[in-house]
């Protein structure tokens, strides 16, 4: 019911730029910079450099507004850290150690892993000291904001008021007045159209355009022309069977587990038991399933007679894997020791990829391999023929058997609907002086996926002024949009005034539907403000809103339904949301105080934060 609160709450972590123990994106750039790199901001002597901003953005490109917001967050963080430093606060070694140990990426089976920590640092080219310094900073920041997060008091009255506002439902109907609906009442004669056209003539120009003639050399198309015999495919499969599937083995086992803290004597005793079971199953292999059900301590397979199903190499632990993939069907292994205990393995079946299953993939591989060689050969010919016969594509058509194609009209900077011509390289080549002005073939253009195009100009149309007759429908529509919007706003306001006085102007009302602040049901936010600003004391009530597209919307509120009492869970959710809003307000005020207390400077040369 109150998802709106959850989805729209302002979190402290946003104010501080997601200050949390997350370390995605740390890399070389985080700890390397040119020594004379001008700083972007200075907080009480602590400088923020471009490398700090890039790290905060995780090295991703961002526009000027995003970069400025990230810099503002870094300044807020340094203000909090500066205040902590002046108060003599530091992150203790124990706090830093606990914070690092709590990072999931550095854990294995829920416990801190020294090897993962080492790999983590090596992958980011970081020293333990640098990483621990960053963690200490995060710990201090968490400590600085924890006061605001905890201990917020929210009264029952506040919760009740918010619940009432969010849950209140209003039954509304909508009347939409559109500019097109009043076209018949507008002055749209030839003189008006001509006057508008003359006043906006610069907008009614056709851009420079071209039609291209082109040929395409594609490895995929070449592959379609290649045939592969069954014998050739069988031979290739025999030589490369591992490429078309991995061998899988079906193994059953009997496991006697060894406690983690077992003594050497206890382990020896369990191994002796395993060896006794081994003698028993080797004496009567047909009873392996029966013995596994009775004696195996593997909870996942014992009930199935020890059957582990099919698995590929590398799935099991190494000791188990090595034995399983060196056995013959029906063979029973020696006792195998792993970290889980002592195993007795029986190889039930071996499944290898077969030619019938892999045939299509084999043929496709052979076609692609042959087509690749042919493509490289023909690409060289394409390049040579396009250059030597620069005034025509005919030589490429004749000698390489390529099909000539002709494009629709193409303009600079406007992508073609043809996927082969949509690559920007094609337009760049087509509008180059050599192709456009000198009328030569282009060089082969690589558009990806082993596909090359050679293009030349088929037709060229310079930029030119369109006549009024050519753009008359567009001119007419623009006048309707402009003048129609003015007329429907005027008529809408008149109708609204009449409705508010109790009149009944003729309007096309929609079916009634319910909206709430918690569920706007597609209602634009600006319109919702108008609808919910109406008093529910006297109904129906009316509101009018002008949209940017020229529509004028009239809303009629027929009924207001009070919200039911919130459940305990909903009250808790609202309580948390209000507490968070209160915390954010207090933290914002605290940060403003810090900004007044500690000097923040931003050099002029550093204000171009939008530089990448």
Q: End-to-end distance, in Å?
A: 44 Å
Proportion of helical residues: 40-55%
Helix tally equals 21
Question: Strand percentage, roughly?
Answer: 15-25%
Tell me about the biggest sheet? Answer: 5 strands, antiparallel
Based on DSSP secondary structure assignment, what is the total number of beta strands?
A: 20
Q: What is the subunit arrangement here?
A: single chain
Integer average pLDDT: 87
Task: Report low-confidence residues grouped into runs of 5 or more.
Answer: 1-35
Coarse morphology: extended
The secondary structure category is alpha+beta
The Cα radius of gyration reads 38 Å
How would you characterize the overall build of this protein?
The chain starts with a helix and ends in an 11-residue tail after the last strand. The strands form 6 sheets. Strands 7, 12, 13, 14 and 15 form a 5-stranded antiparallel β-sheet that branches. It has 21 helices and 20 strands. The protein has 612 residues and is an alpha+beta fold. Helix 8 (156-167) crosses helix 21 (568-597). It is 45% helix and 17% strand.
Put the structure in a nutshell.
With 612 residues, this protein is of the alpha+beta class. The chain is built from 21 helices and 20 strands.
Highlighted features:
single chain; 612 residues; alpha+beta; 4-stranded antiparallel sheet; 20 strands; disordered N terminus
